Give the backbone structure.
Amino acid sequence: MNGAQDLGGQMGFGPIEIEENEPNFHAEWEERAFALTLAMGMTGSWNIDTSRHARETLHPVDYLSSSYYEIWTKGLEKLLLNAGLVSAEELKARAALGPAAPVKRIAKAQDVATILAKGGPADRPETQAARYKVGDKVRTKRMHPEGHTRLPRYARNCIGVIEAVHGVHVFPDSNAAGKGEAPTWLYNVTFKGKDVWGEDSDPTLTLQIDLWEPYLDPA
Amino acid sequence: MSHDHDHDHSELSDIELRVRALETLLTDKGYIDPPALDELIETYETRIGPKNGARVVARSWINPEYRKRLLSDATAAIAEFGFTGRQGEHMVAVENTPETHNMVVCTLCSCYPWTVLGLPPVWYKSAPYRSRAVRDPRGVLAEFGVTLPKETQIKVWDSTAEVRYLVIPMRPVGTDGWSEDKLAELVVRDSMIGTALALDPAKLETAA
């Protein structure tokens, strides 16, 4: 979706604020928000694409004026509501008002290291042939889906060249919508700066973007 | 900057209450086990961070066979150190050379190679970096104090998928004969994102 999260090429945000010797967390609540989000992810009630979509559907004003872990907290509340794990009344009352819904897993402290070390690989078996090979010229689709997508706006309708074939990966556009993983070929595509930004682009710039087959047409 | 700090602090109380309430609610519902939260925080505070990546890079500097493995299958090469899993499931290592400089961003969210770098700094997740890295990388680099020759090719990797990128900075000159451990001290976090170069060995000597 063309939400506030799609920041590539936007202007006016000012200088980058760099903090020397920055801690992982700037307050205790950030630690808890981080851990709550991961722990709830481990219950298997949604996938990583659903959770990204929950964050990007925040109102643009809210998204851009929230700190990172505020976005995570607000995203988590949405996910909990959408999955039926808590009710709006419970969030408002800040207390449990009814029984819990079943979840697939509740991570215990002793399971954490194993779960993290395993991760959540996104590659899937290659059941169909790849449409493109390294060196093929492609054009990204002109598209503006209202749902989740990982084709950034700045890279739409641009000509590039296949740099690498990563394999078959879960397709976020489908997975975020609860329509299944719909695994498809994932490529790294090289774009010249000027083919994305126009003639006044830095002539030494190339963009390397990971893109799924449905985003690409032959060029 | 004390004003900013006060401002931040007064804003935090709302969110602090909100997060606290959420934790209580989810605990009461039985969806989470609070000691698991402590363990998650502890893991990223003490065990998973940019020192992991620095070891990988340092080894690639002194061991050409390792470097070859890292460039051809980074996930497997990094797993040799035991660094596997969440946000590092599909790793790709990209090497800086005199001709090419690599820089990593996630314009759409905050994708970052946790297994080798830990959790991303605030600037990496912020709108100024995410918006500008893909359009004006030299302007971004200048803010980090890095100026590259004008003919250097710049590759900006936008992490749109579950593939995570680790930049291998160039080995600084004047480090011949250095041990892997000592070299790793030169490999600062930002040099593995591509917004810095590896430390100048002279600076390390001064700091020590």
